[in-house]
Amino acid sequence: MTASANRQWLLRRRPQGPVGRVDLELARSRIPTPADGELLVRIKLLCMDPTIRNFMDADPGYKAPVAVGGVIRGMVVGEVVESRDPARSVGELVWGFGEWSDYVAGPAAQFFALPTHFGHPLPTYTHALGTIGLTAHYGLHDVARVRPGDTVLVSGAAGAVGSLVGQMARIAGASRVIGIAGGSDKCRRATERYGYDVCIDYKGDTALDAALGEAFPNGIDVVFENVGGAILEAALNHLRKNARVALCGMIARYGATEPVPGPRNLWNLVVNTARIQGFLVSDILRDAARVDTALTEIDSWIRTGRLRYDLDVRTGFENVPDIFNCLFTGAHTGRLVVQIDQDRAS
Known about the structure:
Elements: E1 5-11, E2 24-30, E3 38-47, H1 51-55, E4 73-83, E5 93-99, E6 103-107, E7 111-113, H2 131-143, E8 151-155, H3 160-171, E9 176-181, H4 184-192, E10 198-201, H5 208-215, E11 220-225, H6 229-236, E12 239-247, H7 267-271, E13 275-278, H8 288-303, E14 311-315, H9 320-329, E15 335-339
Parallel strand pairs: 8-9, 8-11, 9-10, 11-12, 12-13, 14-15
Antiparallel strand pairs: 1-2, 3-4, 3-6, 3-15, 4-5, 5-7
């Protein structure tokens, strides 16, 4: 390791709405030194996740906020370049919760070995064979408990998680899989590439509530919710008896400057004896058997052509803020990651 500087994106001020370059600062610092029990990881890929926007607020809703002047946090993939833990080796490829930087040091337990034995390109482990795939699998099977014959609704259907959920629901034997996405291009991709029966464009002219009524004349068994707000409210109007709602994300509120209207119809959960449950993929990450079961299934679906996934790999550490905002403008296709190991001195 010959590099002497560690590039970092710092939070200069808390954003009001979309993140602007004025809210962040590109800085350089010394490469951190790992303490006993820690690893030093050289980051290769930064994962662009909507929840990072929450961490920039004073009250993220969960976990501590990024302090003003602190380094932006998020999921990363990298290589161990120094180990102070006898159980971990230099050269090991890992993923974990890191920072928008070239290097990050942290407890060894913070970083998980990549399942590279599956033999896929490195970015795949940020998507279908990483936390995205695990989120879809865990939320659909453990939380929503999808069953053969179920009718399934997925918001954010063309996004990284939503695109997998729709296909996994079909594999599980769902009788009807409907998506919601914003814009005709995303809806077309959801049906043509990810196998949704119908994708409702919430930005279109058709009222969402009426469109859901037409798509689900007998109601919805499973709602996999990524957006929240008005979209969740519309879904709750069409629940079947004993429906299950898995709350994966609430992207409608990320970066909002005013409170986002929430569901005003929770009574529908009562009259339909339905269940709504939030979840975090971190709930299962230390359950090695559960993770291996899910990843082995996902790998088999990829190899047999039953599961498709799309990656949008960008480059340039200096471009990270602009790339991040693509999550909220829709200017990306598939899992958005930034490769940063090609534009730095080695």
